[in-house]
Amino acid sequence: MKQLRTAIVLLIVGGLLTTVDLFWAFFRSTVVSFGTVTLSKTVETARPFLGRSALGFQYGKAWFSQKIFYFHVPVAEASFLVFGVAAFFAIRFLMTRRRDFDTKSRIAMETTLLFVILTMVTGDLWTRASWGVWWQWEPRLTTYFIMTLLVIAYFVLRNSVEDEERRAVYASAFCIIAFIDAPISFMITRLIPSDHPVVFTEGGLDPSQLIPFIIGQIGMLMIGYAIYSMRMHEELLQERLAAAKESLEG
After folding, report:
1. Close Cβ partners of 111 (under 8 Å, ≥ 6 residues apart)
2. Is residue 161 part of a domain?
3. What is the pLDDT of residues 53-98, one digit of tens each?
4. For a designed S-S bond to 61, which of 37, 129, 223, 239 qualifies (C-beta 3.0 to 4.6 A apart)?
5. Residue 113 within a domain
6. Domain range spanning residue 79?
7. How many domains does the chain have?
8. What is the DSSP letter of 30?
């Protein structure tokens, strides 16, 4: 029960911090520019085309595209971190064959799926506001979309194998392999040309931007841990109920 109480407290505090982050972002943070976004190539967009410069093709940019990133980036980075937790427990399971490690890996993957969906939704909102399109096949979006499909495929794999031991082994191996895409997606904008912005550049963030960004990161990690802990608590209760039912029937 102590773990459940801690999870509930973290969920409440994380929700409050995330709310503070959003309000600060929309009403207090400095807007770097209302002006333009520069792309490496022309795109079909509702944003007005302003001309071509030495850096690329310039389009009008909406202020909302900057505001949504205060929620989008913490959610996206939380998805990477929780995915890493799932892969860690998957490795532990393959090394020890302890069932609890497979359970922890599965619960972490469920949490990852939630954050991945939120990332895709907020990312589409950012893409629409910033580029005037709902989707663009640029490196970050493409690699993250692949990661989303891999996370979904993990659960398809688990549900397609009936034998419990084989299901755990196959799912753990797939989880580890799928996680390779996470660092690739995270680093790809720093490795090859991409229209997707990099959060921390040489100039850094203004204090009015950095403070809510950090608050949002902490809040989102609290929410992620709370969701994971509450699901683990539910899973343990289900196992105890199943064990009690078997003892009564026996």
Report:
1. 82, 224, 227, 228, 231
2. yes
3. 666 666 555 556 667 778 888 999 999 999 999 999 999 999 999 9
4. 37
5. yes
6. 31-205
7. 1
8. P
